[in-house]
Design brief:
Layout: E1 3-7, E2 11-18, E3 21-28, H1 36-57, E4 66-70, E5 75-79, E6 83-85, H2 97-109, E7 112-113, E8 122-125, E9 130-133, E10 140-141, H3 145-162, H4 167-179, H5 186-207
Antiparallel strand pairs: 1-2, 2-3, 3-5, 4-5, 6-8, 7-10, 8-9
Helix pairs in contact: 2-4, 3-5
Length: 208
């Protein structure tokens, strides 16, 4: 590991080398407020799960290669992607969210919920001229339509909060991409998304 490039609640991200290849090291960090044995168990189990989900998702959509999983250091070493995040491009090209919709639907078609779909987690790989999805730390296997609808809702929320100036165009493209690929009946799915959003609005009113 050579350079810290980001620090999050769950993990620190470093840029380094794996042999002669540029690599990203994702290191899950200790939480000082948590009981040590529980903290170690959670970091280990989440490291294993994320590596498995990255490898599984690669069968359906482009994701970074996993080079190594270190269970004692709670580390995943993976391919470094030289490129740009969708969040940095979408303002001028809102139609790009079509790709996000396609990728999310492909995951759902194969029983995977991403857990944190957003425009920061989709990168354009300049070298290979393709989009990749990253950060599967919250991903899990599921067959519940509600879980897929939560993913869909989360991406809508990101567009509404971070990309409000192109929200309508980006949402339309995202929806088109999703339903061009999804195996789920559109009306049934959108009803579930609406149900989740109504629940969220009700919860916010209660909190106020």
């Amino acid at each position: 590991m050579e350079k810290l490039i980001s620090r999050g609640a769950e993990a620190d991200i470093y840029l380094g080398k794996w042999g002669f290849l540029d690599a990203v090291y994702k290191v899950r960090v200790k939480k000082p407020y948590m009981v040590e044995d529980l903290d170690a168990f959670l970091r280990k189990s989440r490291t294993i799960r994320e590596a498995k989900m990255l490898r599984a998702a690669r069968s359906f959509i482009p994701t970074p290669y996993v080079f190594y999983v270190g269970l004692k250091t709670y580390t995943i070493v993976m391919q470094f992607i030289e490129g740009q995040a969708m969040k940095d491009i979408i303002k001028n090209k809102p139609e790009l969210s079509y790709v996000a919709g396609q990728y999310l639907a492909k995951l759902h078609n194969n029983g995977i919920a991403h857990g944190d779909p957003n425009t920061s987690n989709i990168l354009f790989d300049i070298k290979n001229n393709t989009w990749l999805m990253i950060d599967f730390g919250l991903s899990y296997y599921t067959e519940r339509i509600e879980d897929y609808a939560v993913d869909f809702h989360l991406f809508k929320e990101i567009l509404n909060v971070q990309h409000v100036e192109v929200y309508d165009q980006a949402l339309n493209a995202f929806s088109e991409g999703y339903f061009s690929t999804s195996k789920i009946t559109k009306d049934k799915f959108l009803n579930k998304v609406e149900e989740i959003e109504k629940r969220g609005r009700y919860a916010r009113r209660i909190n106020f």
